[in-house]
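Re: the request from the purification team.
They wanted to know what the chain is likely to look like in 3D before they choose a buffer screen. I agreed to run a prediction and write the result into the notebook, where they can find it.
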Amino acid sequence: MSFRTLLLIVLLVPAAVLGGAAALDVRIPVPVFGRDYVLRFPLEHGAIPLDLPEISGPPDDALPLVVIDAGHGGRDPGAIGEDAEGLKVQEKDITLALARALRSELLRSGRIRVALTRDDDRTLPLAYRPEIARQLEADLFISIHADSAGTRENVSGASIYTLSEKASSEAAARFAARENNADRLNGITIEGQSAAVSAILVELSQQRTQEDAIEFAGLVVREGGEDLAFVPQPRRAAALAVLRAPDVPSVLFESGFVTNRLDRARLTTPEGQGQYAAVLARAIRVYFARRTDFAGGGE
């Protein structure tokens, strides 16, 4: 049967049935809600509630809280490389190992609380990651990743990203539209304000968090200068969705390249992971030691 013949059948048969029914004054019943052949399925409304992770460390809310995000996970392996034996090296495994190592390093001081967005191999939607930091009222958000350079095995080094100014403005506008009834944001009251005023207040708040994030990024490069290999111009800015929390200073740390032999060796061994954790922990402690809100919280 040709496509044209099939199309004619589909179009003409229903018309013929309806025409015949009209000529014979036959009524064809149509579905009506309440009849037993109409099935109704209740749909859930509202956002899916987040499963907030446990906070590790001293039970003192006055101490700073760092949320560490192990990039990718579950069905999303991230960047993929191969080791010397031809075994697959996946970014999601590296980021989780680095996140756990950093948590352990921070908890040793006893002056910083820590939460991981994921502590196992689960799929976590991108939008949930910064939102977890927001709902936990984190003081710093670090998303850890590893990169791939494809066939360019000589490309190596770490880098650290903050949110670009253009992306900041876009995110502020969206956030203001969504959260216009929130009470306070970074100490700024926005409840009851018009959409335009709320957007301005959120933009001011995000400008403050961006400045803090940029300061922290500089500390990571400074503290890691002798211990970690960085790419040229390691401090970068991009429109990364995971950094668009307007009230939590946020950075994305690209730890290295899974496609580079030296980077891969550092990223996949306990010694190398400990080195990364020590650098980030030093930067975090200095960052909080500079803040009067956390006097005595650094080392």
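For the purification team: Residues 30-48, 175-190 have pLDDT under 50 and may be disordered.
Please add any questions underneath this entry.
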